[in-house]
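ERR on first pass: missing label on line 2. Operator R.T. fixed the label and resubmitted. Corrected input:
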Amino acid sequence: MFLHQIKYEWLQLSRDKWVSTLLIIFIALCLFAANNGSKKVALRQAEVEASLAVMRAADSDFKANIDSVERGLKTVEPWLNPRRLNFIGNRAPRVAAMQPAPLAFLSTGQSDLFTHTIKPTLYGESYVLSFGELSNPVQLMFGSFDLAFVLIYLLPLLVLAFSYNLLSSEKEQGSLRLTLAQPVSLFAWLFNKMILRFFIMTTIVTTSLILALVIAGIPIVEVFSSVLLIVALVTLYIFFWFTVSLIVNAFGRSSGTNAITIISFWVILVLLLPAAISQLANSLYPVPSRINMIHEMRIAKSDAEKVADTILSSYYRDHPELAQRDTTIQNQYQFYLGYFASQDVVKKSVAPVLEEYQTKLSAQQQFVESFRFISPSLLLQNALNDVAGTSSRHYDSYRSQVVAFAEEWRAYFLPRMFNNEWMTKTDFERLPTFTFHYGQVDSTSSADIVGLLVFAVLTFVISSLVYRNISRKVLIT
Amino acid sequence: MLEAKNLSKSYNGQVALNAVSFTVNKGDVFCLLGANGAGKTTTINLFLNFVEPSGGEALINGLSVSKHSLATKKLLSYIPESLMLYPNLTGLENLAYFAGLSGSKQNKEVLQSALSDAGLQVDAHAKRVSTYSKGMRQKVGVALALAKNAEVLLLDEPTSGLDPKASNEFSELLNKLKSRGVATLMATHDLFRAKETGTHIGIMKQGTLVEQLTTDQINHTDLEKLYLQHMN
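pass 2 clean. output:
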């Protein structure tokens, strides 16, 4: 009976030009979106590459200069002397780049809000580093047309177009009476109709995804488990929307009413709830002004710098190992030594400000993350950003990895400067380098998939209950 | 065999059917006559389990329709006033689909001969139903009854809107089914056809079966007189 019904249902769908037109449009949209995403990723990669190229060119310049200065072929002003460690520490920073994850093209996520190349220097505070990127505000407002957008926003509409009149059309064209005069259970019969459409949609989405990967030139074998995860997520999402449609159909209203009802669900779940949550997060957990934070830090810093000398002597007491070995000459980095010492004091005095800022920020993020469970579209968005490596957690991690690297950078120069050393050509090979580790970001996708599964099961159970108690009169008259 | 036992139905206190009892045996054609709203369609809907009876029972082969919904539907075939099929499918495909739904999958030859037996021209078998006339669609309905080997046939004004020739053809099909021993319950306004093809006649008025007789008891003129007498 199942296969029999599927066969004739398929026959009908395949003869409907509207169905094939819609599916072709959808595949085209997927490919267009994937192409858009790939272009963005390429741009991002090019930016990183350009930054690295500038760095390498500067490095070889500096090396050549060091060589000339060492051999006395060239004299330079002291503040431009590449042999001085503070010069290199400030003027030859490493590029701390966040290379895109393999599936970054899937979802733009937060990537258009942040920069992917930071150059922490010796002077200046790592925690004040700006990670924001100046971008076109219009672009930000509309969001980007990536695969995640197509899957989260447009896919439900396609599902609805396929299912809003699953039952009502049968009623309206009159074939329902004859069907119900056959020995079939209404729910089983309708569910079979739905299942075929569900399979068509999942096949289309999976095919589009694989095509997109091929076009983007990503070897599928390498990202196989992620692809499987995406297919599973999207399958559950499609199933959810189909069962919503099934439930709405059970009330026996006209196709027009069904369409409006289902679109309302779409507006609520896909548009309103996410907006409401972000509004709520902003008013419940307002993030303190970043400008104020930086301002407070600067005050603390200038206070500390005024007493840098006294700070330095107490700093030596705490760090006897840093005392200069050759005491016959004056340390050329005297100013910096005071600065480094005052840094500790500054750090201590701004710690509460920084901590407050971070606590509030993570409270807001926590709120948004836990409330994603009220809408399947938020769950899918979260999961796709997670797979694409563009979630806010990734950028948080990038921030802290860069901050840690800034410390490492300083730690390389600090003892050498205290010891009044010079920079040599070979030192360039020993400079610390930065690699972004995606592995340090905890994945939330298993929670997301469980969330989506709960939604799908819930709507399925509701639909079967609704059909059990359906008034037959509703169907016949 | 069809049996109505004190069958009653009321919608929100409004009585649509009031303790109606009758029996349709194998090979009988029971014609329900009556004005619109007399309860003819309600009676048929009760046998299809489309509505729940407020009282009494509708039985098919001794099985209560409301208790054995699926089992009784295996036995019956139904042709509504306007039989609507899937316009995208051909007549043959529609027949195969509905026959399959009722659990009687048949091979193509059997289905084609059912269509031909039902009087559908062979060249129409493979045409989409969207090109069919009402009479042609009704024939697919009859073919379904044949393919299903239905023991019971429920007809709701099947000849209304058919031209006299199509209507006549339909009556002949009914005679064919009658000779196969199918028990038929037909709601109709056509007194002439009722007398011609029916074996029994029931006249309904405001939900009550006011008259039951066999067609050989009465001639055309008297049937019309009797009918009008009840209606006035």
